[in-house]
């Protein structure tokens, strides 16, 4: 894909640096670009890749004379200068497309997972199940390790299976993934500062099914159901209806085509949304031929993820749950709906242009109050006004923890599920979680 081409790598975060390392490994003529490159970053890149020029400022100027643009996920393919580059015959790809091209003539299988919410949990669970089934497994992508960094770390050695978490941003530049099995878990409002609307965002997610992949689709989500393609094997999962993989709400049993798999209460994860994640993971793993008995046995050994509806402790009978990784409205709706107890919600931060009104219905029957923090607290309050739940403005997260604890009764939950990004007040969602846990411990 890159051989004998002049390659510009745009975006110099972890993904971009991994692409440069790959270009150095295969010996192609490449250059690096970022809109702003600090002196320290420039010195570090020159030290690692002395053979590659480094550009900043105008992307339009940087593109002159290059055949292929490798885009990092943080840069949209829709920039006018990138569209003009494509119109004059330039090729635009991402690191996932490069990996797919490497693997197309190998025996490595690919399982790919996208969705607005639950994809990190599902990817981690699928990776856990594949490893426990004895497969040489690589877990990479949006989950943390860029795919080419993972490939280079293996020295190009083939794997039994690559389990890839893919964001819509990564899928925009992956025209032909050709995964063996792929899932779209759900589609809810997120990144509407980058897409025209929810349908536009869903179209980017749908690119995960390009190729001959087995489709694993959420039958309860209208956008996912609409992704069904002709002449494909499709496996549906559902919490509400009998389909391929589903929850029998009467017996509390997970089932496949009517056959009992396991009891919902045996899943070691909080919330009904995680039941859906388990159903999707089972469908994906069985699609590549893994034995059901091994899968079911090892669902029970999965520990879950930090900052994803994670219980951090109890104080005077009040339960504290950290869902700091719930950075969009859909994630917070799922967290609240999945918990059975009364909720005292802490939310807010950078809203990314989202509509917060979907929270109204789920809060109405479940929440005592919402404690709002961060730059978009006033916007959230406007969207929730009149929903029948008290809205309390707090200057800091520790103040919100104290006020929520003061209001809660034994057996109820204080839930941090912000529905927002964290960078207005914190270094990231993990730092936000750390402040939450420290505030709990200080009570």
UniProtKB/TrEMBL annotation:
SUPFAM superfamilies documented for this protein: MurCD N-terminal domain, MurD-like peptide ligases, catalytic domain, MurD-like peptide ligases, peptide-binding domain
Pathway, per record: Cell wall biogenesis; peptidoglycan biosynthesis
Binding site for ATP: 115-121
Matches recorded under Pfam families: Mur_ligase_C, Mur_ligase_M, MurD-like_N
UniProt entry tagged with the keyword ATP-binding: yes
Gene Ontology biological process terms in this record: cell division; cell wall organization; peptidoglycan biosynthetic process; regulation of cell shape
GO CC list: cytoplasm
Domain Mur ligase C-terminal stretches: 307-420
This protein's UniProt keywords: ATP-binding, Cell cycle, Cell division, Cell shape, Cell wall biogenesis/degradation, Cytoplasm, Ligase, Nucleotide-binding, Peptidoglycan synthesis
One Gene Ontology MF term: ATP binding
UniProt keyword ATP-binding, yes or no: yes
Catalytic activity: UDP-N-acetyl-alpha-D-muramoyl-L-alanine + D-glutamate + ATP = UDP-N-acetyl-alpha-D-muramoyl-L-alanyl-D-glutamate + ADP + phosphate + H(+)
Stretches assigned to the Mur ligase central domain: 113-284
EC number: 6.3.2.9
Subcellular location: Cytoplasm
Highest taxon in the source lineage: Bacteria
UniProt family annotation: Belongs to the MurCDEF family.
Summary of the function given for this chain in its UniProt record: Cell wall formation. Catalyzes the addition of glutamate to the nucleotide precursor UDP-N-acetylmuramoyl-L-alanine (UMA).
Entry protein name: UDP-N-acetylmuramoylalanine--D-glutamate ligase
Species whose genome carries this gene: Alysiella crassa
């Amino acid at each position: 894909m890159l051989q004998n081409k002049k390659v510009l790598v745009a975006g110099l975060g972890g993904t971009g640096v991994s692409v440069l390392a790959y270009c150095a490994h295969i010996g192609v003529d490449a250059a690096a670009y970022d809109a702003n490159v600090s002196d320290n970053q420039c010195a570090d890149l020159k030290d690692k890749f002395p053979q590659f020029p480094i550009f900043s400022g105008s992307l339009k100027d940087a593109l002159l004379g290059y055949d292929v643009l490798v885009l990092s996920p943080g840069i949209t393919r829709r920039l006018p200068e990138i569209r003009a580059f494509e119109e004059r015959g330039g090729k635009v790809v991402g690191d996932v497309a490069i990996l797919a091209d490497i693997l197309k003539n190998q025996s490595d299988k690919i399982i790919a997972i996208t969705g607005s919410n639950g994809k990190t949990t599902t990817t981690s669970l699928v990776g856990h199940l594949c490893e426990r089934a004895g497969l040489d497994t690589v877990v990479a992508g949006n989950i943390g390790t860029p795919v080419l960094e993972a490939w280079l770390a293996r020295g190009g050695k083939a794997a039994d299976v690559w389990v890839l978490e893919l964001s819509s941003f990564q899928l925009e530049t992956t025209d032909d993934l050709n995964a063996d099995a792929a899932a779209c878990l759900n589609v809810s409002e997120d990144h509407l500062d980058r897409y025209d609307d929810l349908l536009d965002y869903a179209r980017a997610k749908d690119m995960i099914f390009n190729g001959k992949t087995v489709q694993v689709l959420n039958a309860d989500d209208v956008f996912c159901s609409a992704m069904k393609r002709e002449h494909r094997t499709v496996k549906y999962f559902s919490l509400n209806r009998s389909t391929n993989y589903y929850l029998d709400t009467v017996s509390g049993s997970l089932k496949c085509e009517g056959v009992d798999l396991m009891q919902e209460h045996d899943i070691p994860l909080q919330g009904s949304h995680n039941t859906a994640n388990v159903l999707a993971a089972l469908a994906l793993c069985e699609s590549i031929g893994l034995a059901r008995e091994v899968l079911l046995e090892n669902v029970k050994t999965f520990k879950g993820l930090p900052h994803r509806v994670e219980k951090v402790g109890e104080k005077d009978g009040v339960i504290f749950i950290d869902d700091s990784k719930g950075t969009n409205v859909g994630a917070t709706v799922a967290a609240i709906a999945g918990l059975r107890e009364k909720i005292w919600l802490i939310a807010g931060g950078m809203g990314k242009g989202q509509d917060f009104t979907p929270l109204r219905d789920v809060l109405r029957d479940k929440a005592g109050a919402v404690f709002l923090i961060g730059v978009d607290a006033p916007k959230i309050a406007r969207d929730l006004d009149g929903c029948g739940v008290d809205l309390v403005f707090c200057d800091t997260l520790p103040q919100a923890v104290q006020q929520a604890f003061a209001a809660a009764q034994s057996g109820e939950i204080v839930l941090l599920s912000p529905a927002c990004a964290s960078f207005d007040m914190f270094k990231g969602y993990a730092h936000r979680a750390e402040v939450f846990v420290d505030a709990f411990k200080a009570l």
